[in-house]
Design a protein that fits this description.
Elements (H helix, E strand, L loop, with lengths): L1 H26 L11 E4 L4 E4 L1 H21 L2
Antiparallel strand pairs: 1-2
Length: 74
């Protein structure tokens, strides 16, 4: 049971870090959420937003970070 608690605390810490990075990125005017490939549709009664380009960029960055993390812990 303690391993589950440690895992949940670790995931919570990661979410806090990701939130902090996104807040800082917004203050410095980085175009996260407005990259080429992000799909936005505004109709008469509906608006749909799908951040495809941003999701790909975040996925690449996280993959690189996890790769570095795994190489350091060998």
């Amino acid at each position: 049971m303690t391993e589950l608690g440690k895992t949940l605390l670790g995931l919570g810490g990661v979410l806090v870090l990701i939130g902090a990075v996104l807040l800082v990125a917004g203050r410095f005017g980085l175009p996260l959420g407005r990259l080429p490939g992000d799909i936005a549709y505004k109709g008469k009664n509906v608006s749909v937003y799908f951040p495809l380009g941003t999701s790909i960029l975040i996925g690449i960055v996280l993959s690189f970070l996890f790769y570095l993390f795994s190489r350091l812990h060998r």
